[in-house]
Design brief:
Length: 78
């Protein structure tokens, strides 16, 4: 899971292009998962403003449900 600042016309993040770069990296990770015959739902990208911190528990809970649905990494032998 990647969580970063929102981006757009009124970009406020101190990482300048970090969130936009994270989107590209997320796409790359999803493509690699596809090549490995794994579910690309195992990767999520969320963009939040600092004032939206109260959404984090809900985001984490939903993502935990996704991981429980698909299980642990099948290549780890667990």
């Amino acid at each position: 899971m990647l969580i970063g600042c929102k981006y757009g016309d009124d970009y406020q993040c101190h990482f300048v292009k970090g969130s936009e770069l994270a989107v590209k990296r997320g796409e790359n990770i999803r493509e690699k998962l596809k090549q490995m015959a794994m579910e690309n739902e195992r990767v999520e990208l969320h963009q939040l403003e600092i004032s939206e911190f109260e959404r984090l528990p809900e985001i984490f809970a939903k993502f935990a449900g996704v991981i429980e649905k698909y299980g642990l990494n099948p290549f780890k032998g667990m």
